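Feature request, filed as a ticket because there's no other form

It would be nice if the structure record came with a short human-readable summary line next to the C-alpha cells. Right now we just get the raw output. Example of a typical job, pasted below so the devs can see what we mean:
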Amino acid sequence: MPMSFEMSFEAFNTILLCLAAVVPVVILIATRSDTWGVTTIERMSVRARLPIPSWDMWRSIRGRSRALLRANMWGLLAGIVFVGGLFVWTPAGSSPFAMWLLTLTLLIGVLSIASTIVGVRERLFSPAPAAPRIARAKALQVRDYLPTWAALLPAWLLAAAVLACALLAAMTSVGAIAPLSAIVAVAALAFAGLAAAACRVAEHRVLAQPQPASDTLELAWDDLFRVGAFVSLRMSAAMAAWLPLGLALTGIVYAAIGIGEPDVSRLFSLFPWFGIPFLQVGYSLIDGRLPIRLYPEYLRPAAPAPAPAPIGGFPA
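Raw output as currently delivered:
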C-alpha cells in the first residue's frame, strides 16, 4: 500500500523561513573576507560605465558596497526573526500567504531602512582638507536620479488606490458588498500613506547629506549609490501602494460578478500578487545605472555628427 506524505503549512513555512535565514548568514560570513568585492565592484563599474582609476577609489567603493550589503543582510535577519515571531505567536504560520508576508516585510521595510541608514551615515570619499572640492550649482531632487516613470509610479499607484478604495466604499454603502473588503482595503491604504510619507522623509535625509568629492568622477560614484537608495525607497512605496489597490480591485471584482462577500483567505487568494515581482524587476533594471545628465562631461556619449550638406545645396 503506497504511503502518503503530507506536510502542514506550519512545517512548510518554517522550513522556508529557515532556508531564507541561511542566505544572509552565508553572505555575512563571505563579506568578512579581504578578497570580497573583486568581481562585485568590477561588475558594478561595467554596469554603471564608471571607471575606477585608483586603488584608493576602489577601496572606498568596496567599503561602501560592503557596508550596504551587510546592512541589508542584518536587516534581512531581523525581518526573518520578526516574521518567525509572528509564526510562533499568531496564526500567520499556518497561512498559505505567510511567505508573501515575509517578502513584503523584507522588501517594503527592511531593505529601504537599511539603504537609508547607510546613505545617511556612510561617506563614500573623504578628500584631504587641501584637495579641491566639487559642488553643484543647484541641489538635485529624486527625479534627477531616477527615470520619470520610476519617480512617479508610487504616486500614481497611491492615487489609483485612493480612487479604488473610494469606489469600494461607495459600493459597500449601497449594500453591494459587505464591509469586510472595504475595511481591509482602507487599512492597507492607511499603511501605504504612512509608507509613502516615511519614504519621502528618508529621501530628504539622503538628499541633505554632503557629497565630499575631489572631481566629477567621485561625484558620479556617490550619485550612483544615491540611485540605489532612491530605487529601494520608491520601490517600497510602490509596493505599499499596490496593497490597497489590489485589495480594493479584488473586492470590486467580487461584487461585480456577484460571488458575495469574501472572507480574508479568499480575498488574498484573488489578490494580484504578480504586481509585487513586476515592481521589483522594473526597479531592479534601473538600479546600478546613472542617468546621462549625472555623468562627468568626458564620459557622456558624444553627440551624433550632423548630416553632411547635400551637393549643390539641393535636398538629397
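Something like this underneath would help us a lot:
The chain has one domain: 9-126+145-294.
The chain has ten helices and no strands.
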